[in-house]
Amino acid sequence: VKNTLNPVWQPFSIPVRALCNGDYDRTIKVEVYDWDRDGSHDFIGEFTTIYKELCRGQNQLNVYEVVNAKKKIKKKRYIHSGTVSLLSFNVESEHTFLDYIKGGTQIHFTVAIDFTASNGNPSQSTSLHYMNPYQMNAYAMSDEPDHSWVWCGVL
Length: 155
Prior knowledge:
By secondary structure, the protein is an alpha+beta fold. It is built from five helices and six strands.
């Protein structure tokens, strides 16, 4: 955030795996820099927290002192370079295919296998399987099913 001593950052998203690899007690280090146009950003300080603390959301426990260790060593009266307050924290679950199955989702799955090679290459117009862009092939026009297909149903 440019041109302010009291920045309010835009909300952002980060996967839990990237943040703490699913370890809610793993230390998360946050570094704060002062942005410079020439790319030589100045280190303001840092603080640490853990996922469990962030999950508490906005409260007095989620106000962090940003400390620059080098300044702390050089200046006896140095306390911190400011504070960072957590304004919001939201966890959004992304369900996997397995989650849906465990939740009772039923899937009807059908497989069809054509074992006939005698019909020719389907990319050639002489094949019964040829997909003509202007008309249906013999199978598409047929009312009778092709008996060379094997149908398997799985529930």
